[in-house]
Amino acid sequence: MKIYWENSFQSFSLIGEGTQQFLQGQTTSNILKATKGEIIRTCALSPNGSIRALLEIKLTDEGANLLVLSGHADSFISNIQAGIFPADKVQFRPIKNI
Q1: Cα 1 to Cα 59: distance, rounded to the nearest angstrom
Q2: By the 8 A CB rule, do 16 and 91 touch?
Q3: Burial class (CB in 10 A: 0-12, 13-18, 19+), 67
Q4: What digits encode the pLDDT tens for the residues 87-98?
Q5: Is 13 within 8 Å of 93 (Cβ atoms)?
Q6: Are 80 and 57 in contact (CB under 8 A)?
Q7: How do residues 59-89 score in pLDDT, each as one tens digit?
């Protein structure tokens, strides 16, 4: 069997009715116009505009599944967790690495 990827990828879910609105403010894509089941390739930027992570996002009935393809995954995930407030109506759920 031929191995194509030598690394694993971190993934997690955001659950809740505010997921699309939350991701709209965290990524460079127009998440609000995306449809459920659609896979969105996008970037997450730092406050100063540098790329923090390259992502694939799949919208689900519950919220969204996110796969961190490249970048500072641990830092990005920590910032996402720290940036969720009760008013966002979003919950973080870890998923095993892929």
Answers
A1: 32
A2: yes
A3: buried
A4: 999 999 988 666
A5: yes
A6: no
A7: 999 999 999 999 888 888 898 899 899 999 9
